[in-house]
Write a structure and sequence with these properties.
With 199 residues, this protein is of the alpha+beta class. Helices cover 61% and strands 11% of the residues. It folds into 2 domains: 63 residues, no CATH class; 122 residues, Four Helix Bundle (Hemerythrin (Met), subunit A), CATH 1.20.120. The two termini are 36 Å apart.
Length: 199
Amino acid sequence: MIVVDGRQTGLSIQNFDNLEQLLVKVMEHDMLENRVVTDVYVNDEVFSEIYPHQAEDIGAGEISSVEIRTMHVTEMGVNIAQELAKVVMLMDKGAASVADMFRQADDGEALEMFQDLLDVTRDFFGMISVLREEFGLKDNAELNDALEELSGLFSEMIEVTENEDWILLSDLLQYEYIPSVKRWQGLVANIQKTIGSGS
């Protein structure tokens, strides 16, 4: 039994050699147009690949049921855009805390928090990348400019960290990174409107 969003697909597990073949065929199905797969259940258990093409190693004989859950591309975009707003706030507050800690010479804790800030910033870049791909935002000059600015600052911050210049890093965070992040608050609101209106 192969089910997508609670509906039978009419496809039979026995017609495939393995799970990968089955999933590739299901992805071609009309009911998945403009939809993104969020979860795959095999034999009522969540399936996600631990290594590339793991699905190829699961023979059809081992499978009794496959359930695929999806979300409309627009809904996914709205969810990411809402998450982005929270991430921007985290980046803003986190940078202020890290800058303060470095100024108070609390280097150990500051470095730990700074690592978290770098991770959150990387996630932010990933989310923006998905939205640019899926929603035709690649030609948005304001977005590209803000992305280039933040990306440059990110590289600069890593460079300064390698030189262990904590005062310069504090200044970078306070006077350049935070204003750059605040600029994203308006951009994220615009992204939400754009995606929400389906354009």
